[in-house]
Structures are given as C-alpha cells and as structure tokens.
Amino acid sequence: MVRGLYTAASGALVAQSQADVIANNLANVNTSGFKRTLLQVQSAPEMGLYRRQNDPSSDSPRGTASSAFVGALGMGAQVMDTPTVFEQGSLSSTGNPLDVAIQGNGFFAIQTPQGVRYTRDGQFSQDPTGRLVTMDGNLVLGTNGAPVQLQANGGSVQINSSGQIAQNGQIVGSLQLVQFANLTQVRPEGDNRFAATPAAGAAQATNSTVHQGFLETSNANVVRSMVDLITAQRWYEANTKVIQTQDQANSWAISNVARTQ
Amino acid sequence: MMRALYSAATGMEAQQFSMDTISNNLANVNTTGFRRNEARFQDLVYQELRAPGTPVGASMVPVGQDVGLGVKVGSSEKIFTQGNLIQTSNPLDVAIQGDGFFQVTMPDGTTAYTRDGSFKLDANGAIVTANGYFLQPQISVPQNAQQLNVGQDGTVTALVPGSAQPQQLGQIQLARFVNPAGLSPVGGDNLYTQTAASGAPIVSQAGLNGTGTLQSGYLENSNVEVVQEIVNMIVAQRAYEANSRSISTADQMLQTATQMQQNG
Fold first, then answer.
1. Which residues on B lie below 8 Å from A229 (Cβ)?
2. Chain B, 60-99: which have a CB under 8 Å from a chain A CB?
3. Which one has a higher pLDDT value, A83 or B50?
C-alpha cells in the first residue's frame, strides 16, 4: 500500500505514547518524590529514493534502471527514549518529624527484597523495633550501610541538613544520601523507587541537603502537562487526517482510474 | 486501548481517596483527641517497552523506553502531632502534653488507647471515658470527696472527710508506642488498638520514658488545621480535573481513530 499510510500511522502511535506518558505524570501529580517522564521522539530510519531511468544504450525493452539518487524519504517517527526528569520538586511543609525532603541530586538508599533501591520520597516512619522504614516497610539505610535504628523508647527526633539523626541529644545514626554520575541510567520501578543500572555508575557521596518536616512534591506540572496533552491530541488528529486523505486518494484511484466508460 | 485511559483513572481514584480523607479530617475538626489522616501516594510499575542496554550493532541503547501506569494509594497515615489544649476547668478533663495514650478497658476485656481525656465518674465513682469504659488502672473516687485533682504525673488526689490532707486515690498511667502511626483506629470513638506494626505498649508514669505530662482542666483538641485541609482539598480537586482531562483527551483521540475510515 501507499507508504504514507504507514508513515502517518507511526506518527499517530507516537502521539498516543505521548498521551500515555502525560496521563501517568498527571496521575502522579500528588505523589511525593515523583519524577516526571519525558517522551523523546526521533525520525524513523530514512530510505533512499532513486529515479529509474531508461538507459538508451541498452537493448532491453524495459531499459536498465540507472540509479540516480533523488533524496531521502522519511518513514515517520518513533519513540527514542523516555528519560526521567530529575528536576527538583518544590518542598512542602508537613511538620511531621519523620518526613524528610532532599534538596539537590541525592537519593535515600533503602533495602528492598530485590536489593538496594533509591528514593526521593522521604515519608518515613518507625517499625515496632524502632528502625526507620518507608511506607512499604522497606528499611532506610544509614551511612554505614546498615538500617537506621532509632531509640526504641522514643524521644523527639532531630535530623540536620546533612542527614544526621539525633534523638534525646544523642546522635543515633545518619541517613545514607547518594548520587549518581549518570542519572539517565537511574530507572523508575514504581512504588516511588528507583533502581540504579550498572551504567549509572557507583553510588557516590552527595552534597544534597536534607530538610526535616518537609516532603518533596511531585515535579509533574499540571499546566505544562495540559499544554502537552493538547499538542498530543492535535498531533494525533493531524496524522489521522493524513491517513484519511491517503485513503480517499486510494479509494478514488480504485474506483476511477480503471473506469472505461 | 490506550494506557492513558487507565493511568488517568488511577489518578482520579487516588484523588477521590485524598478527598475522602480530607472530608473525614474536616468532619473531626472539633473532635477531642482526634488525629488527622494524610493520604500518601506511590507510582505504579513501569511497563518496559525497550530495556536500556539493548544491543544496537556494536553499541547499545543508552536509555530505555518505559511508560508508567499510574498511581496508587501508598498509605493513609495518622499524623500524631500535638493538638491545641483548650481550657475547660473541669478537673476530670485531662490533656496529654507530649507523647502517650490513656489506657482504656473495653467491654470485652481488651485494652484500647486514646488521647481523649474527657473523663467522667460513673455511679460507683469509677473514672470512665465518655463512652463509659473504665480507665486503666481503675481509679475510684469516694462519693463525698472534694477538690478532685489530677497532677502532672497522673496522681489523682481528693480531700476526703475526716482527713486534713488530700488523699491519693490512684495514678493515671500512659502508654506509648514506638510507631503510633501503626495503631488501628478501627473502632472509631477516638480509640485505637495495638497492632503488630505499632509494637507493644510501653507503659509508664506520665512524664517518664518519653511520655508527656498531664494537664488537668484542659482537653486536647483535634490536630486538624482547617487551612491546610482546604489547601489539600484544592490540590486534590485540581489534580482530579487534570486527570479527567487526560481521559477526555484519550477518548477524543480514540474517537478520531474510529472515525478515520470513510464509508463508501
């Protein structure tokens, strides 16, 4: 069939992926520590167009096609990648002493059944034995790589900007804060967690600061997402219009070109 | 169908949950000892369309493609911050300033915990909650006692006829938990019960072992801040609207697709 049909379909599919990505960002507009996803689009591989020319010196009735290069013909669009945008979210005050927000590029390290994972969501609480845990019950790791253990009989908790935790005037531990050389390789896993792939590089010390009593809000922006959504919709419509037009041309050709009367 | 439809639906559900929580907080803005809830969210799993590191000739794909599938409610956490103390001048109204809960014996013999210190006397002079449950340990006030007083450490004293000095009638003890957010509020009535997540209660005299002190003649109001709840409500409503726009846009896109084919 006509190449343009497939080209336009590839554009419509990419526009649909864009709407999927925006819908997820908007669904997480109130998820603390959420980082929005960006859809990056690239052109599909191009194909060369060649002019067929009859070669007068040839005896062949059809001539031999000499391959005069005309130009490149685009084959549509495709999704290149979906990087996570680690832009800082704004901090909102909760007053809860075990809520902590990170300002900077750092992550909290947490121990999950799948291994060490990283999060920007500092909504912590204590388990019955006094260990610091995330909402899912995963242990929050300290600078020594062991879970942060608070005093079981309580007392007010102070966390300073470097993540050091004091309770009843005594230092009980320090939050492990790490950053990665290659943030594009830190991938979201759901549950406000990120996994570092080997290409992200080793977890290194960070100069990010910690704010006690605050949470980092989602960096999904409603206004921007709305604009992107409108763009995605019109992008989709434009491509379907192209499909329609090609379809009409085909339809006309089928019914009229071979008409004999 | 488009993932966007389902992702946006999870977003709307999450905001509805948030709205439910805010409404309950506002309904309890004047409930003694009430602790506000906060809905907290987590992103759902990401569907991987192409893994990073997929080989391309001699090189590899530097960044993968994955699409998130929406949001879920992570927890609805009770926030145990101090509420304001309101003076009532009734000696049996006792507020806890700091950590800890009063212990209450339920009709089935189990122990429940509360921050609501609006105590009363029953017909036999025993100190009971507004619902008639006995305070634990049980304290009885003689019929003809006067000048009832509850000290900061929980000592209940009164003047009994025939004695010049106030007599000690008992001592209110407080229980505290390592993880109070893990207590179960299931029964309502400002009462909480112990769970595996909260840990075992640490019972001690008021003012010791990290428990707060008692203030007789005061009640602790709810810790709901109206302004904060209204702000959260606005945020929830706008987020809900934004998600409904995702749905209507996805719907219109699908409509465009279905109308693409020409008849005839």
1. 245-246, 249
2. 61-71, 74-75, 77, 79, 81, 99
3. A83
Residue the block writes with tokens 């052109």? A43
**In angstroms, rounded to a whole number, what is the distance separating the alpha carbons of residues A87 and A153?**
38
CB pairs under 8 A between A and B: 218
| pLDDT digit string, tens, across residues A100-156 | 999 999 999 999 999 999 999 999 988 888 899 999 999 999 999 999 999 876 678
176-205 of B, contacting A, C-beta below 8 A = 176, 178-179, 181-182, 196-200, 202
What are the E-state strand segments in A185-233?
A: 186-190, 193-196, 204-205, 209-212, 214-216
Please state, as a whole number, how many other Cβ atoms lie within 10 Å of the Cβ of residue B155. Answer: 17
- Does the beta-carbon distance from A27 to B252 stay under 8 Å? no
The stretches in chain B having pLDDT less than 70 are 1, 262-264
Q: Is B233 exposed, middle or buried (0-12, 13-18, 19+ CB in 10 A)?
A: middle
CB contact under 8 A, B52 and A197: yes
Beta carbons within 10 angstroms of residue B5's beta carbon: 18
pTM for the full model?
0.81
Map tokens 């507020």 to a residue: B95
Predicted local confidence at residue B264, as pLDDT: 47
Closest C-alpha among A97, A100, A110 to residue A178: A110
